[in-house]
Design goal:
single chain; 85 residues; mainly alpha; 79% helix
């Protein structure tokens, strides 16, 4: 049970930090590398499952936040799929 609680807590904290980075409103050339760094950090600290969970949510958050350009919005599900591979 300790492992599950630690995994969920750490993943939730890293997801919250990732969402905060996306919500700050920095330009995409700054936000993109910061989000990727958070994905890398999540994978290192909690493993592949945590990285995939956060990676699956970041494209949708970027879409809701308006970071994704209008022409790229229809391909958001494919971006999600590529991040989880």
């Amino acid at each position: 049970m300790w492992r599950n609680t630690r995994f969920l807590t750490t993943t939730a904290l890293l997801l919250a930090l990732t969402v905060a980075v996306q919500m700050v409103g920095l330009p995409q050339p700054v936000t993109g590398p910061l989000v990727n760094a958070m994905l890398f950090l999540a994978t290192l600290t909690v493993g592949m499952g945590g990285g995939v969970a956060i990676g699956a949510l970041t494209p949708w958050i970027a879409l809701m936040r308006g970071i994704v350009p209008p022409l790229a919005q229809p391909v958001t599900p494919f971006i999600l799929e590529l991040k989880t591979l």
